[in-house]
TrEMBL record:
Keywords: Signal. SUPFAM superfamilies: Triger factor/SurA peptide-binding domain-like. This is YtkA-like domain-containing protein. Residues 1-21 form the signal peptide. It comes from the Bacteria. Residues 22-96 form the YtkA-like domain. It comes from Anoxybacteroides voinovskiense.
């Protein structure tokens, strides 16, 4: 540890500068490490036993046993003595944060020690995590569906129409590669699956097996799909699809409830109109559900 850090550690319980009060600092949110992501860091500060207000707080982060330089941030007051800001750390491990707290003529330094863990999730919906493995699977699944559509297009069209159709699906493929698009879809799906469970819906193993069996039969007709599944790893693909299928089935239960209610309220309208109205209500319900949940996104600064 560098001499400066050793010296500061020796002053862990001492004040520096001029201070007439008793200051207490507690870590409320320990930052995590994820490449390219700034993680939240929050502390609660008390002055003479009371929640501190209108203080200026500056934090300097350094690793305890390695030299990765300093990361400095100003913490912002959020109320109830909480001061926080996002900080992007270069790796997991043991870190120290030197807090310089200023209020009026008072100035105090506090050294905090913490263990920073690596965060595997790219998003959290409530307590449910969405990982990069989930994202990669969904991207592969999307590409398989697009590849099948391209195969169908080549078998159906020629000339200018064929080129137009292929251009459309090529653009869809580029869109499927975007990290933010995949994460958004998975967040929405997880949100509606949670709503379905709140409403008492349950997906059985038999339902999942039936869905997988139908999809296997469909993919067996397309060589491109088989090749992509083989490249992904067949066992892993169907294991991942089993988890994804559960979410899809739960979300479908919510839609089916809405469609049933629409049909009951409008017995004379066409099936197309029922689907339109049910989809509209589903989208409105999705927005309401998203607003009601605590959702965290851990996306890198440069999306890919």
């Amino acid at each position: 540890m560098r001499k400066l850090t050793v010296f500061l550690f020796s002053l862990l319980f001492l004040f520096t500068g001029c201070s007439n009060g008793d200051w207490e600092v507690t870590i409320k949110t320990t930052p995590f490490y994820k490449e390219g992501v700034a993680a939240p860091f929050a502390v609660q500060i008390k002055e003479n036993g009371k929640l501190a207000k209108q203080a200026k707080v500056h934090a300097t982060f350094e690793m305890s046993n390695m030299d990765h330089g300093k990361i400095e941030v100003d913490l912002h007051e959020k109320g109830n003595g909480i001061y926080e800001e996002n900080v992007q750390l270069p790796m997991e491990g043991d870190w120290e944060a030197l807090l310089v707290i200023k209020k009026g003529n008072d100035k105090v330094e506090k050294l905090l020690k913490m263990h920073v863990k690596k965060e595997e999730a790219v998003a959290k919906v409530g307590k449910e995590k969405i990982t990069m493995d989930d994202v990669r699977f969904y991207q592969v699944l999307s590409k398989i569906e697009i590849a099948i559509q391209k195969e169908r297009v080549r078998a159906t069209y020629t000339g200018t129409t064929l080129n137009e159709q292929l251009t459309y699906w090529n653009r869809r493929e580029q869109y499927a590669n975007r990290l933010n698009q995949a994460v958004s879809h998975l967040v929405e799906l997880q949100a509606m699956a949670l709503l379905a469970e709140e409403k008492g819906h349950v997906v059985t193993k038999q339902e999942i097996a039936k869905t997988i069996s139908a999809l296997r039969s469909q993919y067996a007709r397309y060589e491109t799909a088989q090749q992509m599944i083989h490249a992904y790893g067949e066992k892993k693909f169907w294991e991942d699809y089993s988890r994804y299928s559960k979410l899809r089935l739960l979300a479908n239960d919510v839609y089916n409830d809405l469609a049933g209610a629409v049909k009951k309220a409008n017995p004379t309208v066409s099936d197309n109109e029922i689907r339109y109205l049910a989809q509209k209500q589903y989208e409105e319900l999705l927005l309401s559900q998203i607003d009601s949940l605590h959702i965290e996104l851990y996306l890198p600064n440069r999306l890919s």
